[in-house]
Amino acid sequence: MHLSPLLLAALLALYTYATPISLANLNITTPPGTPPKEWSQLHRRAPVEIQESPLNFCFPPVSKKALAVVEKAKPKLNLNVFVFYGRRQNTAVLERYLRRNSIANGGLVTKVLFVLNLNKIKDNDDVDWINALAAKYPDFYEVTHTPPGDFNQNYAHITAKEDMYIKVDDDVVFILDGTFEAMVAELWTRRDWYLLSANVVGHTIFNGIHNRFGALRAWTLNTENSGIVTKPANETNWRVSHLPHVNVLKIKRIKTERDMPGSFYQRSYMKVDQEKGQEGLLKGSPLWLMKEGSFDACSWKSAHCAGAVHYSFFEAVEQNNTERYFFPTWDLHSSGYQRWSIHMFAFWGKDVMGLDIAGDDEQYLTVTYPEKVERHSGAVGNGLIAHLGYFTQEAVRTHTDVLDKYDALSREIEQTKLHGMACPGTF
Ligand SMILES: *[C@@H]1O[C@H](CO)[C@@H](O)[C@H](O)[C@H]1NC(C)=O
Ligand SMILES: *[C@@H]1O[C@H](CO)[C@@H](O)[C@H](O)[C@H]1NC(C)=O
Ligand SMILES: *[C@@H]1O[C@H](CO)[C@@H](O)[C@H](O)[C@H]1NC(C)=O
Questions:
Q1: How many angstroms separate the alpha carbon of residue 209 from the centre of ligand 3?
Q2: CB-ligand 1 contact for 123 (6 Å cutoff)
Q3: Ligand 2 in reach of 58 Cβ (< 6 A)
Q4: What range does the record give for the signal peptide (predicted)?
Q5: Cα–Cα 20 to 30 A to 258, which of 64, 144, 374, 405?
Q6: Nearest CA to ligand 3 atom 1
């Protein structure tokens, strides 16, 4: 079935508004839309120290050019992060990267506000979990909420004109060191950008760009018994080099998520070996079907593709080669005001404050408003993050071990210092 982008947007909006829950049943104490107490205090930041990775994998070091801008910006920079929070399983991974980038830890982030999304939260455990987290780190985390259906309130906490803000989805499950620095430096120097997106693995537009530049590798769902992961989540290995390979000639047709059996099995993927002389191809993997464009079926609504995208990324991390996902900063609106997915983006307070963002915030912020004020948005290529999946790709969460792998990866990275994972000889 072919769905037009408009129809998909309508379905998305419907989904977002479905099943609101009653506030009375939730443990919520803060008034809606409250800005955090310290949103607007400037902080002293320590100079950045880049160090060699003590682990058996490493990252490209933070860009020197970005660091130079950030050093100059620091005395005047106030960087606020907010997260539209829905699920603790995702956020448990994300928040490790947020704390890693806190000022206390040598990073740039002043404060994080979790805005509870009452259209998505299904149970009180999610509320209790985030409240407990905020209580544990009271100087860094705060919690507020938006009343169900009142989308306008989602941005009501943006009250400081001269502050920089970064919005992060709660299913962002990896943030490369240097991402905040890259985004801040770009927005600081290019005041003409309206919004600035990170470079997102698991994104309807950027997947196609990663494919174009040859960053992806051929992975496919392992539907053999060996593909069922029996280990408990806390013992998951994120590394993929030990996983089985399959010869491309053995794959008769590319499997889809309809082939994912059993709701409780955690399935893993296998690497597809190409024929001799065709090593760069993605044949046999669902990624072979990927096309550039914002509503490409592979990137936007196939869980099987999402899994393959993430396994490809785990391979790059294991090979110390996340850099192959980088691209130069580019203009997302160079061929018109096209909609793009806003999983992590930066902007100045004054550019979003007071706007009437009712309903579909993504449509408003990436199309309607920038078109009206004639401003383009950009994407910064060395600010690299991973986004688990769209609501259409729920099976990547329920039927694969991808989230467990990101969880394991984040636990290893958490043991090191921010900027303390640079590859030897690169800084
Ligand atoms: C609210 O939170 C408290 C403490 O975190 C907990 O004991 C209580 O059961 C929660 N209430 C509901 C309705 O879940
Ligand atoms: C990646 O870098 C780490 C840390 O420098 C090193 O120990 C490891 O051997 C490297 N791995 C590969 C596949 O090059
Ligand atoms: C994982 O969790 C299980 C059950 O809670 C526990 O017995 C086991 O020791 C944990 N493993 C690790 C590596 O923490």
A1: 39
A2: no
A3: yes
A4: 1-18
A5: 405
A6: 234
As a whole number of angstroms, the distance between CA 70 and CA 74 comes to 6
Rounded to an integer, the average pLDDT of 222-249 is 85
Look up residue 119 and give its two tokens: 């259209």
Rounded Cα gap, residues 235 and 283, in angstroms: 31
- Give yes or no for residue 11 having a pLDDT over 60: no
Q: What is the pTM of this model?
A: 0.89
pLDDT range class, residue 404, cuts 50, 70, 90:
very high
Kindly provide the residue ranges of all beta strands, DSSP E only, lying in 206-279, ordered along the sequence. Answer: 219-221, 228-229, 245-247, 266-267, 269-273
Give, for ligand 1, the residue of 128, 129, 136, 143 to mutate: max count of ligand atoms closer than 8 Å to Cβ: 128
Residues contacting residue 343 through CB under 8 Å, at least 6 positions apart: 168, 169, 171, 172, 197, 198, 200, 202, 203, 385, 387
Q: Identity (one letter) of the amino acid at 406?
A: Y
Q: Round the average pLDDT of the chain to a whole number and report it.
A: 87
Atom of ligand 1 nearest to the CA of 25: 13
Q: In what order do the strands lie in the sheet with 245-247?
A: 219-221, 269-273, 245-247
Mean pLDDT within 8-14: 47
Give the ligand 3 atom nearest the CA of 235: 13
Residue matched to tokens 């947020």: 98
Is the pLDDT at 197 greater than 90, yes or no? yes
| Residue 146 Cα to ligand 1 middle (Å) | 20
- Best CA proximity match to 318, nearest among 238, 384, 245: 238
Over range 243-252, report the average pLDDT.
91
- The residue type found at 414 is E
**Could you tell me where the beta strands, DSSP code E, fall in 192-278?**
196-201, 219-221, 228-229, 245-247, 266-267, 269-273
Interval between CA 232 and ligand 3 midpoint (Å): 7
Q: Label the pairing between strands 269-273 and 219-221.
A: antiparallel
Task: Give the number of whichever ligand sits closest to the CA of residue 56.
Answer: 2
**Residues constituting the chain:** 427
* 112-154: pLDDT as tens digits: 999 988 777 878 899 999 999 999 998 899 998 877 767 667 8
Question: 65 pLDDT exceeds 90?
Answer: yes
pLDDT value of position 347? 98
